[in-house]
Amino acid sequence: MTANDNAVEPDVETIVKEHSRNKKKKGYKEELIKNLEIIEVPCELPEDAQYCPWCNTKLVPIGKETVRDELQFIPAQVKIIRYIRYAYECPTCRKDGVPDIGRDYCNQLFKNEEKLSDLKSEDRKIKRLELEKPVLEAFLRWLSTLNSLKGSRLGKAVTYASNQNVYMENYLLDGR
């Protein structure tokens, strides 16, 4: 049997049933889990890290934040496992206040800058490196040791200052 080159191809129509997905309502997940048991898993500092690096006083918890929630499915059981991180502070240093320490570093930089205002650019650059670089480095080291809650005012200030690190060091490269 040979194929007929003049034969007309039949029209074939494919019909696909349409599919639509229902959108989930807002708050759907919250509604599903609102009555589930919650087991908190504390994420505390190790005992040897619970001391103030400046005065060696034992730190005290001042708050906590949720790190993450996990939904755990055990046949015939569903629970929420919530990981909680605690924030600590030193009761001794609190009297001085952490913000005060940060402000003192900044004030020291401003005072040095005021003393250098009459110098020529090249001399000012040399003096900045001599006087201000150690203060700035100490401030940034101190900043990296803080353990603050993300949403707190201190947490926002620490994040902001940490993100400005590169820009804060730039002024040391120039005497203007």
Structure description:
- The protein has 176 residues and is an alpha+beta fold.
- The protein folds into two domains: 32-91, no CATH class; 97-173, no CATH class.
- It is built from six helices and three strands.
- It has helices at 28-33, 91-96, 98-115, 121-145, 153-163, 165-170, and strands at 37-43, 60-74, 77-89.
- Strands 1-3-2 form a three-stranded mixed beta sheet.
- A hairpin with a 2-residue loop joins β2 (60-74) and β3 (77-89).
- It is flat and about 100 Å long.
Write a brief structural summary.
The chain is α+β, with helices and mostly antiparallel strands.
Summary tags:
alpha+beta; 3-stranded mixed β-sheet; 176 residues; flat
Percent range for β-strand residues: 15-25%
Strand element count = 3
Q: Count helical runs.
A: 6
Which consecutive residue ranges, at least 5 long each, have pLDDT under 50? Answer: none
**Per the principal axes of the C-alpha atoms, what is the gross shape?**
flat
Question: Could you outline the blueprint of secondary structure elements for this entry?
Answer:
Blueprint: H1 28-33, E1 37-43, E2 60-74, E3 77-89, H2 91-96, H3 98-115, H4 121-145, H5 153-163, H6 165-170
Parallel strand pairs: 1-3
Antiparallel strand pairs: 2-3
Helix pairs in contact: 3-4
